[in-house]
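Limitations
The structure tokens in this dataset are predictions for the assembled complex, not deposited experimental models. Users should treat interface geometry with appropriate caution, especially where small molecules or nucleic acid strands are included. An illustrative entry is reproduced here so readers can see what is and is not provided.
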Amino acid sequence: MDRSSSLLDEALDLDGLTTPSPSQPARVVLVEDCVETSGAFILHHLMKRFLSPHSSNAVVFVAFAHPFSHYERILRKMGCNLVVQRDNNRFLFFDMLMLECPGLDGGVGQSIESGLFALYGKIQKAVEVSSLAESKRNITVMIDDLSLMEVAANGSSNHVMDFLHYCHTLTTQFGCSLVTLCHEDIYSSTERATIPLQVEYLADVIIKAEPLASGLATDVHGQLTVLNKGFYDGLGSSRSKMRNFHYRIKENIVEYFYPGSRT
Amino acid sequence: MAESVSRALRDGALDGEHAPALAIKDSGDSPFGLAVFSHVLTQLASNVLAGKSQSRFVVLDCYTDPLGWKERLMECGSITNSSPKVSVNTSLCKDIRDLDKLFSLILQQGKGFLGEGKSRFSVAIDSEPGLSGRKAHGGGSLCLIDERADLDLMSNLSLGKVSEMLRHTSTSSVAGLISNLRSHNLVSCVFWLLHSDFHEIRVAAALEYLSSMLASIEQMTRPNDVPRDNSQNISLLEHNYRRGKFHVRFKRRNGRVRVMSEEFQVEQSRIKFMSVSSEDGTIAQSLVPKVQFNLQLSEKEKVDRAKVVLPFEHQGNGRSIDIYDGRRSLNDGKSDTMPASSEKVQTNEDSGRGEIIYFRDSDDEMPDSDEDPDDDLDI
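Predicted assembly:
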């Protein structure tokens, strides 16, 4: 299992993500998924990696999709206790499901912005506090997911992009990483899908979770295409690379393997 | 060709003309606009640095706080840490939506420099995350633009992502800003970056009309031709993320339009341009199907082939050869003497050579060639 799970890690260059180094700039990761293949497991995988006991990294999680208990259950099965991490201030959870849903009170345009502005203020504050707590720690801001965020912003993609732009300024200011999930096929009919396109421009790593092109299979649940642009690195692995492999989601773990390496 | 772009920007505006303007256009399939943008910026900066006495630059930072959120947060006291200043000459633009204000801010920055007795200033408006990102990470390769002592009162101006501006304002106001800048007599050149797939075609076209040079970046090959899931496609896509085509359209004052093409390769955060022709050769070579037979000749093989003497060429070492056709003795006047003498001469000179000597039995006999060889057959 160790070998196979490292396929994703290797493609993502996860060591670079989890251990901050001066030559390695902060990374922006975009996970794109489809209706048939959810990309949530990649977020869980990354969350577990970031919160591994060997590091002091922190995660700021902005949830539009699920409540805390959902993530907590999944991560517990994977061997990571989110409640403990939350108490240690390594996992900061923003529940955007209900009450803080921006833009539902008052006038439309201004209130959406003020709602997202308030959320951004909280995130920046959290990032500031946790970067002050320990100087060498790498903070990751995760957003699950952008499409629901757009729904929460009453469909105003411009405001979502403003918000993302400000989150992106955090990566340069504090050296944070930014991980976002986006549903691709919601936008498939529109001519210019602004949000996925813009985030693709920003992203250093794009992970696409798709169903197999050859159709359904019982023992393969989908394929991942990982594009690691990484050409702004200082030294070493500065070439962009692309990996494609299949995965199978099991109860607690996900298996990754190259096409054809399984019978 | 990338040099000619840099050269045009370096030379700046002529008196009574608008400043040269470069639009860099890329798309999601080949997102190297930023790399080209910073290449142009560094070229311009080094050009400026080469002929100048002092080096300074102003950065008008539209990236860090384009909507003034951070300022508001700081006023509330909820955040403390203001963005780290990359350079002393950085100033923040806190409302990207108000382009009139932005324009006056740009001019104010520029004139501020002029007030200090400098003759030329440059402003890089940086709404571009990648640029400031690399600055913050000490990439070091990026030196921004400076003033130049030996030239007129002009500024170079690079607008980061115009796409970002267009998101906040209308096309007409961005076009107005660019056109105002171009026609301003303090501005020596303007360039900007545009992601074409964010905008409608007419928006991109409107901004292209404002530019005197358009650099568009395209991918090398279209992946759509190949089925989606095979491994070849992956490597093709990977290939596309390292290199691409670079087309530049120059518009001259007299209306002549010239289009040039180049290819580029991205390596180690730098971009390398090369001419198309050299690249074509290698592609053509790689397109030849792989067979067991060697279809190409090496240099040595070509030389060896040229040395081979064809049959009949080697007999006589360059002299013309008489081939006896059996009739000459009949028709030639010297037919009586020639056969015997020529036989003698030949045997003396070329004793080492094999030779067939044939004497006809009689002159009445018809030449061999006229006989029917199958005469004796009873068919």
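Some entries come with short summary sentences. For this one: Chain A has one domain: 2-257.
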